[in-house]
Amino acid sequence: MITKQFNNDINLIHLNHARLSPWPQCTREAVIHFSQTMQYATPEHAKQYYETEQQVRTKLAHLLHAPSADQIALLKNTSEALSIIATGLEWRTGDNIVLPLQEFPSNRIVWQALEKQGVHCIFVDLNCHDDPEKALMDACNINTRLLTVSAVQYSDGLRLDLARLGQFCQQHLLFCVDAAQQLGAYPIDVQAMQIDFLVSCGHKWLCGPEGMGILYIHESWLNRLQLQHYGWHMLKNIDFEQQTWQAATTAQRFECGSSNTLNNQILHSSLSLFETISFKAITQALTEHIDYLYAELQAAGFEIATPASSEQRAGIISFRVPEKDSSVLCEHFNQQGLICSQRGDNIRFSPHFYLTEEQLNAIVPRIKQILSH
Ligand SMILES: Cc1ncc(COP(=O)(O)O)c(C=O)c1O
């Protein structure tokens, strides 16, 4: 039983995968095993770590439906991946970038930092539009070089139609996607969605390590992004004695030094588990949980900020209880074993596929109990 890999405790219900996910048992065991091998750290172990690293790239390429694992770089975090893109592109004065006003800071600051090069950000307030994709497309003009969006908004959980945006960008603009709140919860196909750059992290819906970034680059951009960081690991032929060098032609050219072998192990283990369940089954279970929770929270009279249409939702439901301070309430929820976050004026619930029926059924009664005190 897959749910046995996770905590099924009715008194500690994890509704915070949009922030930091628990690790399944197999991953916790993989960490113990890794630490045991580190008692010896032989060249044979180092070879295994390298193979794991390659397998992680392959698994991620498969998950993203990328043509090749050579288009995947393993980095420190999502922010670093975004910085590699923003600083690697050649900008012209007067270029602009279109993005939602509600973006997570990492997918805003990096573009705002281009202001000094004469590059401007055009922000689109998604809350003011019934058709958020159209609003983003309408904001693009002749000087727009890049459209960047989170696949799922971190705060209210709005899921954008990436295929529609990718189709629009295809001819004239670059399309960059922050998939931190989607990867592992809902499918992404970088080819079908015509994505040029995709970034993500390990510690949310993939139930992997914090401090791990994932970067996918369309093959036409692999060798056109300017390099900003240099080191032995990024070379085409790794030879410590050689004075001349060439950067790798794969995405490894963006990984300048030693790989985070422990993180690779963690992500490898969680991805392997998810593959045995199938990502399709994960999405289906998560959708059912979210549909159920949405109906329950609505019936309880709470104000829900997340879209009503399941087409526009992923794994996040954000809501507030009328006349209650969300930050105070969020603290109470956590104390009472409903693990969640506060974002803006709302409380954000983000359950994952493995929640048991018993846990799911206990959520709203627990909230009511807390409110009655
Ligand atoms: C949309 C989005 N992107 C990125 C991140 C995390 O960025 P990083 O991996 O740089 O910590 C988060 C975390 O909350 C997020 O919600």
CATH homology-level superfamily of the largest domain: Type I PLP-dependent aspartate aminotransferase-like (Major domain)
Distance between the termini: 37 Å
- Proportion of strand residues: 5-15%
Structural class computed from helices and strand pairing: alpha/beta
CATH topology of the largest domain: Aspartate Aminotransferase, domain 2
From the spread of the alpha carbons, the general shape counts as globular
CATH C-level category of the largest domain: Alpha Beta
How many separate structural domains?
A: 2
In round numbers, the mean pLDDT is 97
What is the CATH architecture descriptor of the largest domain? 3-Layer(aba) Sandwich
Task: Characterize the structure shown.
With 373 residues, the chain is α/β, with parallel strands linked by helices. It folds into 2 domains: 2-23 and 278-371, Aspartate Aminotransferase, domain 1 (Alpha-Beta Complex), CATH 3.90.1150; 27-276, Type I PLP-dependent aspartate aminotransferase-like (Major domain) (Aspartate Aminotransferase, domain 2). Helix content is 36%, strand content 14%. It has 11 helices and 13 strands. A 7-stranded mixed β-sheet has the order 2-8-7-6-5-3-4, sandwiched between helices. Strands 9-10-13-12 form a 4-stranded antiparallel β-sheet, covered by helices on one side. Strands 1-11 form a two-stranded parallel sheet. Helix 1 runs antiparallel to helix 8 and helix 3 runs parallel beside helix 4. The radius of gyration is 21 Å and the shape is globular. The chain starts with 12 loop residues before the first strand and ends with a helix.
